[in-house]
């Protein structure tokens, strides 16, 4: 009875929940959700992006974007998050752009060439994503400052996790065990660290960044390998100990 | 036994004469207003005046009566009723609009229109922000109000600002549903703060806002709205229906006007509903369409007039 009286109240509540703009998984059967930006917002933001190298992540850039898209200065009110929308738009579009790197995802193989593994693809895609910041890297610290603001941090962190998930997914990772989490967490950490390193890198063609990235991947391999070995050793020892006790007649 | 029969007869009586759906509230005379003799005939178009239903033709004059009564003590009363918070709301409203901002140095400035802006509260803030923050001394504003006595109050107050008698500030007595003296596609920013709930035909006013705004121009509305937390809502309702008419009586000597005020707040469409009204008028809304202030006591709604693609 109590349930019956409560149910009608629950139903309108569940109706009110809006469809998520971001889907936490990849689907081959359903088209991707429309994303966090409306067509008008996208047209203004994409017009604003070319102004970032000269004006940075500022209100001026946003204003110039509205003008270039045929709108007026007042139209910047379309973005309740203001300048952070520029950062978010860059993160979002560059993440989606990764799927277009055909030469990495399905490389044309010459005869007797080995099919590149998941690890190679992950490294290549991570590098491509870093290179997408190439034009605006001298302004990227402004964006990092926006992302560190408490009100914007949830969006920034969810974009980072979506990015590492996207990279692993595109590389063909199909793990379904706890390593799923380890892979994404370690890639997120590597990416965030390398991106920060890149903001101060003055070397030609970002050679230093490339080496930094390779060292981080090596670290993870060593740590991951050591962790795996330690876990295997601990498991074996525990098993052996148990069997020794059993052979002595302990009923376990 | 006797008590049971008494109970039963009472119960029957209650079935025969159902209780009025809205129980009377302490300190409030809303029931009296609701039962007032001015019930319109069926064939007339009607609208809300607080909890009363009045013919559309009558609302305008009655709202005019309310604001003619409160014009002089308007700000004192606002301070008393909102404990001074209305100033924070207005400051935040203006700051979020960022009037006068521009990407170019030789910008012609923003052309702004403050509807129902009688006392100039919002208008002076908008001009201050445009001048001091965005260095846009060419931004102008038209203060429009349907009520000449509210507008007179605004003119009086403008003398204390640096905008007195400057071409940046002008006054216009007009009904927001028919702004025929203002050209189509001419305004950058249309603001209406604590005014739209008094309009007889809100849809018509929204369509008129859409007409006067430039493509890309902004409609911005600061208005009382629905409190989202039910516990806070109970406290807030108690305050507004009991204390505000009482304060009105004590400070301004006018209970009925303030009774209308709280009733009109209650009758005004809530956040989602008003957002949809703005969308229906043709505007695009930013994000979810509104921003709650102080738990939803007030809300800022915005709409942007889309640019027609050639």
UniProtKB/TrEMBL annotation, chain A:
GO terms for cellular component: mitochondrial inner membrane. It is found in: Mitochondrion. Keywords: Lipid-binding, Mitochondrion, Transit peptide, Ubiquinone, Ubiquinone biosynthesis. InterPro entries: COQ9_C, Ubiq_biosynth_COQ9. One of its GO terms (molecular function) is lipid binding. One of its GO terms (biological process) is ubiquinone biosynthetic process. Pathway: Cofactor biosynthesis; ubiquinone biosynthesis. Residues 153-221 form the COQ9 C-terminal domain. Its main location: mitochondrion. Membrane-associated protein that warps the membrane surface to access and bind aromatic isoprenes with high specificity, including ubiquinone (CoQ) isoprene intermediates and presents them directly to Coq7, therefore facilitating the Coq7-mediated hydroxylase step. Participates in the biosynthesis of coenzyme Q, also named ubiquinone, an essential lipid-soluble electron transporter for aerobic cellular respiration. Belongs to the COQ9 family. This is Ubiquinone biosynthesis protein.
From TrEMBL, chain B:
Component of a multi-subunit COQ enzyme complex, composed of at least COQ3, COQ4, COQ5, COQ6, COQ7 and COQ9. The gene is COQ5. This is 2-methoxy-6-polyprenyl-1,4-benzoquinol methylase, mitochondrial. It is an enzyme of class 2 (transferase). Pathway: Cofactor biosynthesis; ubiquinone biosynthesis. Pfam families: Ubie_methyltran (PF01209). One of its GO terms (cellular component) is extrinsic component of mitochondrial inner membrane. Its EC number is 2.1.1.201. CDD domains: AdoMet_MTases (cd02440). InterPro entries: SAM-dependent_MTases_sf (IPR029063), UbiE/COQ5_MeTrFase (IPR004033), UbiE/COQ5_MeTrFase_CS (IPR023576). Methyltransferase required for the conversion of 2-polyprenyl-6-methoxy-1,4-benzoquinol (DDMQH2) to 2-polyprenyl-3-methyl-6-methoxy-1,4-benzoquinol (DMQH2). It comes from the Eukaryota. It catalyses: a 2-methoxy-6-(all-trans-polyprenyl)benzene-1,4-diol + S-adenosyl-L-methionine = a 5-methoxy-2-methyl-3-(all-trans-polyprenyl)benzene-1,4-diol + S-adenosyl-L-homocysteine + H(+). Keywords: Membrane, Methyltransferase, Mitochondrion, Mitochondrion inner membrane, S-adenosyl-L-methionine, Transferase, Ubiquinone biosynthesis. S-adenosyl-L-methionine binds at residues 119, 145, 175-176. It is found in: Mitochondrion inner membrane. One of its GO terms (biological process) is methylation. Its main location: mitochondrion. It is a peripheral membrane protein. Belongs to the class I-like SAM-binding methyltransferase superfamily. MenG/UbiE family. GO terms for molecular function: 2-methoxy-6-polyprenyl-1,4-benzoquinol methyltransferase activity. Coiled coil: none annotated.
């Amino acid at each position: 009875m109590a349930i019956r009286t409560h149910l009608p109240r629950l139903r309108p509540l569940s109706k009110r929940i809006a469809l998520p703009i971001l889907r936490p998984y990849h689907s081959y059967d359903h088209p991707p959700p429309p994303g966090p930006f409306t067509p008008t917002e996208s047209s203004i933001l994409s017009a604003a992006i070319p102004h970032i190298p000269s004006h940075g992540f500022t209100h001026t850039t946003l204003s110039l974007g509205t003008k270039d898209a045929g709108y007026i200065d007042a139209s910047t009110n379309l973005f309740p998050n203001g300048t952070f929308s520029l950062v978010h738009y860059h993160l979002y579009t560059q993440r989606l752009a990764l799927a277009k790197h055909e030469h990495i995802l399905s490389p044309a193989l010459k005869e007797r060439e080995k099919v590149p593994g998941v690890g190679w693809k992950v490294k290549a895609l991570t590098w491509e994503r870093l290179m997408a910041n190439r034009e605006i890297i001298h302004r990227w610290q402004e964006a990092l400052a926006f992302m560190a603001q408490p009100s914007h941090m949830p969006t920034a962190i969810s974009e980072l996790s979506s990015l590492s998930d996207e990279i692993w997914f595109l590389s063909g990772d199909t793990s379904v065990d706890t390593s799923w989490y380890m892979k994404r967490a370690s890639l997120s950490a590597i990416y965030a660290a390398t991106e920060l390193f890149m903001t101060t890198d003055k070397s030609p063609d970002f050679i230093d960044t490339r080496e930094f990235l390779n060292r981080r991947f090596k670290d993870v391999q060593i740590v991951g390998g050591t962790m795996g070995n330690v876990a295997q050793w601990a498991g074996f020892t525990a098993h052996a100990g148990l069997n020794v006790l059993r052979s002595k007649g302990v009923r376990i | 036994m006797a008590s049971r029969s008494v109970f039963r007869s009472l119960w029957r009586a209650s079935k025969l004469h159902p209780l009025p759906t809205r129980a009377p509230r302490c300190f409030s005379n809303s029931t009296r207003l609701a039962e007032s003799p001015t019930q319109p005939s069926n064939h007339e178009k009607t609208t809300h005046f607080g909890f009363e239903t009045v013919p559309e033709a009558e609302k305008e004059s009655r709202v005019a009566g309310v604001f003619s009564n409160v014009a002089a003590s308007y700000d004192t009363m606002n301070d008393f009723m909102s404990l001074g918070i209305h100033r924070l709301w207005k400051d935040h409203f203006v700051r979020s609009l960022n009037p006068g901002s521009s990407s170019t140095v030789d910008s012609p400035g923003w052309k702004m229109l403050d509807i129902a802006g009688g006392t100039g509260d919002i208008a002076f803030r908008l001009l201050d922000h445009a001048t001091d923050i965005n260095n846009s001394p060419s931004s102008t504003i038209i203060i429009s109000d349907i009520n000449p006595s509210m507008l007179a109050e605004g003119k009086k107050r403008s003398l204390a600002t640096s905008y007195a008698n400057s071409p940046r500030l002008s006054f216009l007595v007009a009904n927001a549903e028919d702004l025929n003296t203002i050209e189509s596609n001419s305004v950058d920013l249309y603001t209406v703060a604590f005014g739209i709930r008094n309009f007889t035909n809100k849809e018509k006013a929204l369509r008129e806002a859409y007409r006067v705004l430039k493509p890309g121009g902004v409609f911005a509305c600061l208005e009382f709205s629905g409190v989202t937390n039910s516990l806070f809502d109970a406290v807030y309702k108690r305050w507004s229906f009991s204390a505000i008419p009482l304060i009105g009586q004590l400070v301004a000597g006018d209970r009925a006007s303030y009774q209308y005020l709280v009733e009109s707040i209650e009758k005004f469409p809530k956040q989602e509903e008003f957002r949809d009204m703005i969308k229906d008028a043709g505007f695009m809304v930013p994000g979810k369409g509104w921003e709650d202030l102080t738990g939803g006591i007030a809300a800022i709604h915005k709409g942007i007039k889309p640019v027609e693609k050639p």
